[in-house]
Amino acid sequence: MSAEEQLAWFSDSGNQLSDALAANTRELMGLKAMIQRLGEGQKEVIRTLNLAAETGLPTPDLVSTSVFTRRDNFDLVTRSLAPSLVLLFHRLICFDLPERGVGRLRSSEVWLGNADGVRADHAQPPPASEVPSLLEAICENWRDNFKRLEGSSAKIRRLAIAKFHAAFLVTHPFLDGNGRVARAILMQQCLDLFGRADMSLMEKGARYYAALSQADKGDASALASLLEPVVAT
């Protein structure tokens, strides 16, 4: 092999080695990015579990994964929302709970704990003696504003639904099943005011719990924004 041929061979080998190193570098960078994404996903899962532990992890139900569309001209259900209707929701949705608690407001005190099992800093449920009057108050407020909401912007309607949802959950009317009933009422409110409720698109992770915590402090805007995909047509 001549000197020129040897030089050409080494030059070609060097190019191949450089290309191989570049390809390996790209693969390593891609692997690094994948590991970072997995790490972020793991952090989100941990954050969700911690927030869920503080506010109460929701029990899975069909309402949370279904799409509903209103196709009838009957009177709107939540136009007449009242405690008696809330109790009916509880009976229909929470039939798997002990009979003594189904369709009955709680008569004992409860408190919500954090991930460490101690009393959480966020809003706590009121005394059981106040539950009937508080539930009547939030239902009455919804009824009184319903006609106005029908003619309001989508943003105002979503905010009203979010405020009711947060108020209902912090009232904690039942010993168990509050989350399921709250989601069922939210679904019906979306149907009544938007004609559609895709509950499968309702955020159920860390963003939901963070928005709920924010709503407990008086700002339900983040919770209302989570309803946008739910009612989108």
TrEMBL record:
InterPro entries: Fido, Fido-like_dom_sf, Fido_containing. Residues 81-229 form the Fido domain. Pfam families: Fic (PF02661). Keywords: ATP-binding, Nucleotide-binding. ATP binds at D176, G177, N178, G179, R180, V181, A182, R183, Y208, Y209. One of its GO terms (molecular function) is ATP binding. Coiled coil: none annotated. The active site is at H172. PANTHER family: FIDO DOMAIN-CONTAINING PROTEIN, FIDO DOMAIN-CONTAINING PROTEIN DDB_G0283145. This is Fido domain-containing protein. It comes from Caulobacter endophyticus. The lineage of its organism: Bacteria, Pseudomonadati, Pseudomonadota, Alphaproteobacteria, Caulobacterales.
